[in-house]
Amino acid sequence: MTEEWRSLKLEGPDETGVVRLLLNRPARSNALDSHLFEELPLAIAQLDASSSVRVIILAGSGKNFCSGIDLSTLARFDEEGSTSKSTRNDRHDGARTSLLNLHRVKRLQAAFTSLEDCRKPVIAAIHGACIGGGVDLITACDLRYCSSDSFFSVKEVDLAIVADLGTLQRLPLLVGHGHAMDLALTGRRLNASEAKAIGLVNDVFQSKDVMVEQVNALARNIAAKSPLAVIGTKRVLVKSRDLSVMDGLDYVATWNSGMLVSNDLKEAIQAQMEKRQPTFSKL
């Protein structure tokens, strides 16, 4: 994990296994550019594979968490379409252009889905603006916390596009269909207190500094638990969203059939009996 990223910055992991992954274009309020979409899945894959990492905090550098997708990235869709080899000789072939756009959108979607697919918990720590693609990003995280100055907007409708990187699929699971429809159709600004009230964020803190402190404490608390249990809990919860209750029960039974023989379980029971904190091995 020593790569030099152009759109990201890595801090840690610390001695507890907590790492901070920062969106790092502060001069542009961390607008999401092509480098971000290339680098995010690579960074997440490395953190997921590292035995030293147990929890990931996703945050933003500078005054805002994320101002949404960089408009130059959107503009490049049309530019690339008009100059690519596949369309130079078929400039007016809508089918070829559509197929090319489909491939591009799926690639961008995969970058954000890497957060959900990551075995380790990903906590979004939000301050300031979280707009458009920023909302797509945080809804793919496992937990979301923000400072009181935060605001949110599903802004895509104001750019004459349909939000296509996960908001329309994941946001209703967090806030319900009605709230999601309201936010997506109006593009209105949602403040921090309302975001908590409807379930978009888990909690709101009075300042960025307090939020950072509290989210770090939460991450360390999770990191101190059995990594096998943490990974399994995330996996079962994510998987169960698409399963019936009975199928979900079958899934967790299958999962635990392998985990009930772990050394972590023995250590947890022994620590309880000895009234001490358990110590769990790295993955």
From TrEMBL:
A Pfam family per the record: ECH_1
Gene Ontology annotations of biological process type: fatty acid metabolic process
Family: Belongs to the enoyl-CoA hydratase/isomerase family.
Pathway noted in the entry: Lipid metabolism; fatty acid beta-oxidation
Location in or out of the cell: Peroxisome
Cellular component, GO annotation: peroxisome
Organism of derivation: Adiantum capillus-veneris (Maidenhair fern)
GO molecular function terms noted in the UniProt entry: delta(3,5)-delta(2,4)-dienoyl-CoA isomerase activity
Name listed for the protein in its UniProt record: Uncharacterized protein
InterPro entries: ClpP/crotonase-like_dom_sf, Ech1-like, Enoyl-CoA_hyd/isom_CS, Enoyl-CoA_hydra/iso, Enoyl-CoA_hydra_C
PROSITE patterns: ENOYL_COA_HYDRATASE
Gene3D superfamilies, per database record: 2-enoyl-CoA Hydratase, Chain A, domain 1, Lyase 2-enoyl-coa Hydratase, Chain A, domain 2
TM segment ranges: none
Keywords: Acetylation, Fatty acid metabolism, Isomerase, Lipid metabolism, Peroxisome
